Amino acid sequence: MPELPEVETVRRMLEENVLGRTIRRVGRSRHRLRAPAPAARAMPLHGRMIEALRRHGKFLLIDLSGGLSVISHLGMSGRWLFYASDTIPPLAHVHVRIAFENGTCLWYQDPRRFGTFRSVPTAELARDPSLRNLGPDPLDRPPTGAWLVEQAHALRLSAKSFLLDQRRVPGIGNIYASEILHRAGVHPGRPAGTLRLVEWERIAAETRAVLGEAIEMMGTTFSTYRTLWNEPGAYGAQLLVYDRAGEPCLRCASPVRRIVQGQRSTFYCSTCQPRRPGRARRSEGRSSGHSARERGPFR
DNA sequence: ATCCTATCCTGTAGGC
DNA sequence: TGCCTACAGGATAGGA
User: Fold this and answer.
1) Whether the predicted model's global pTM rises above the 0.85 cut
2) Virtual CA dihedral for A80, A294, A282, A201, nearest 10 degrees?
3) Which nt is closest to the CA of A176, judged by C1'?
4) Quick one: A219 and A90 in the same domain?
5) Where among A127, A158, A192 does a domain terminate?
6) Which nucleotide's C1' is closest to A222 (Cα)?
């Protein structure tokens, strides 16, 4: 489940490796991604130079010379993989193969095909249906408690579902939503409109902290995500609640619970994240400061 | 407008 | 060992 830290990791690696490169050739699989790119024939990618690599939420934006941009989303199982030479191992589910003029190449692989790769005139990016409703990117404009409390005003949906709504804070997915709420001490089932300002302030602070720490560790490899060099991310060892149902909470030792919200798993600690917010708040005043913990190898 | 559900997709894990 | 089923969740369309 690539979320903002995973996409940002890939974006930074792409910036290091393909910025300024000129596309020599693009090959596509006939196995269609969910949103194929019918415009590709009309506006070919080859011959264009990569001018910028941007990201909004979980969307990767590749600006090409000549006023064309590529919108790419990794979906559930998408990977961008970079190869410095043309000796490439056999690989299934590769949908896009980009060859650069210097002999390097970049592949988009996506077994489940939930991801996207399509080209759009750069001038029309802001109007694109996928992008136009996204909230401000949390790395560009970190959310504040005041802004979140205003966004959530009178909403009845759960705090967890609120965090997954890309119109609010884009880039948060199922893994980081559980982690952020746990660290903020907020029960995931609380109606978003009932959270107090101090709670949104903690959520805002933990959003910044969790995303930042995850980027430093090149993301979370829960199952399929890999970096541009096909390496796993290291943040999985830092997860406090995600996929830890029944295991002791690392703060209070109560068993971590799993519930289903909107057909997705949510993990939380009923002691650290009480359903009814009382005065028994966590004692520490600082928002962050979790030490790295030891955990066994990835699943 | 808000909220919820079904849909897409395939590798993997677990049961038997 | 091997078959079968359930499960994982990104965005989005459509209905209540």
Assistant:
1) yes
2) -20
3) C9
4) no
5) A127
6) C8
